[in-house]
Each structure stands twice: as structure tokens, then as C-alpha cells.
Write a structure and sequence with these properties.
alpha+beta, nine-stranded antiparallel β-sheet, 3 helices, 12% helix
Length: 198
């Protein structure tokens, strides 16, 4: 399977537009001896001045990567356990991001199964914590430019994206009514309650 690296020029600058654009694109995790990749089927946008966004209170050592130019990785740990993969989603210094919530496994499925300790492919990366575990997303990847060669990057494949649905975001307590979750309708790899994925 041929994956073509995305360039920054292809990425929308607007955070919500970028979140929608990334559905159907590919996250590639290159390891020393292998490759894991997954086709993005679900994202959530976190905007500037959005109380649910980690950048809401300004730049800190923890969220610094959110303030990089759109297309950089922001990786953080949630509840002290789960790593989360995000893409910075604004101009440099703005502070916005896109959470990659779920992917359809494409390459390195056996590696993903071993890392997750289960066989069922639809469950390997359905949810942001599961995705990070399956794809070996570490804090060391935080701040990487995902449009350049490296251990983690974004690409595209020659496959059309299905109809994209929109809903409110999942698992947050602030700004809960904003329609900023984007997902590929009908995908069995999408996370969250079924009522939000139709």
C-alpha cells in the first residue's frame, strides 16, 4: 500500500476544517524495523477560546506543542494513564488542536494486536487511548512535524472517504454542545455511543 505524505500546504488552517479534512487520511508510525498505520475515521476539534481545549488558559510546558504551527503533534497523558494523539490546529502561537479519536488499522495489525492484547481488529484503535497504545504513541513524539519525514507522520492513500458525520464531542464536561466531532459514517472503527455516530 502506497501512502503519500501530506504537505502543510494541503492542510486547512482553520481548526474545524482541518479536523474534517483529516477523516480518511492516514497516521503512519514508523518503527526501526516495521510500520504501523491507520486510516483516520474520527476526530474532534478544540478551538481557540474553547474552554475544553488544553490551550484555554495559555501556553505551559505541558501544552506547548498546541501552540506550534498546524500539522505538529501534541501528545499528552490523560488521567495519568492514557496517551492521546493530537494535531496542532492553528497558526503558530494560537493554541488549537485536533484529537485523533479512532483509526482503521491498515499496516502492522499483528503489532497492534500484540500491543493491545486482543485479536478483534475493529477494537484495536477505536478510542484515543486505545489508538495510542496500539500505534506506540509515546510522549517522545510530542512536538514532531507530521508533514516531514520521521517516526510519526500524516499521509493519504488512494481510497475515497465516505460520508462524514458531525456530532458533539465525547467525554468532556465543558463546551459540550459544540458540533466539533467528525467521523466517517458507517465505519465499524468509530468510537463512542452509536447514537452519535449515525
Amino acid at each position: 500500500m502506497r501512502v503519500v505524505r501530506l504537505t502543510r500546504a494541503e492542510l486547512p488552517v482553520d481548526t474545524a476544517e482541518l479536523a474534517r479534512f483529516l477523516v480518511g487520511k492516514v497516521v503512519v508510525r514508523d518503527l526501526p524495523d516495521d510500520r504501523i498505520s491507520g486510516r483516520i475515521v474520527e476526530t474532534e476539534a478544540y478551538l481557540p477560546r474553547d474552554a475544553a481545549c488544553h490551550a484555554y488558559r495559555g501556553e505551559t510546558p505541558r501544552n506547548r506543542s498546541l501552540f506550534l504551527e498546524f500539522g505538529h503533534a501534541y501528545v499528552y497523558v490523560s488521567y495519568g494513564i492514557h496517551r492521546m494523539l493530537n494535531v496542532a490546529g492553528g497558526a503558530r502561537g494560537i493554541g488549537a488542536g485536533i484529537l485523533i479519536r479512532a483509526v482503521e488499522p491498515l499496516q502492522g495489525i499483528e503489532l497492534m494486536q500484540a500491543r493491545r492484547g486482543l485479536e478483534r481488529v475493529t477494537d484495536l484503535a477505536r478510542g484515543p487511548g486505545k489508538l495510542a497504545q496500539a500505534m506506540e504513541i509515546t510522549l517522545g513524539l510530542d512536538g514532531l512535524d507530521l508533514t516531514r519525514e520521521g517516526p510519526l507522520w500524516l499521509g493519504r492513500i488512494d481510497r475515497p472517504t465516505g460520508s462524514i458525520g458531525v456530532s458533539v464531542r465525547i467525554g468532556i464536561t465543558k463546551e459540550t454542545d459544540l458540533p466539533l466531532r467528525f467521523f466517517e459514517r458507517g465505519s465499524p472503527y468509530v468510537s463512542g455511543p452509536k447514537r452519535l455516530s449515525v
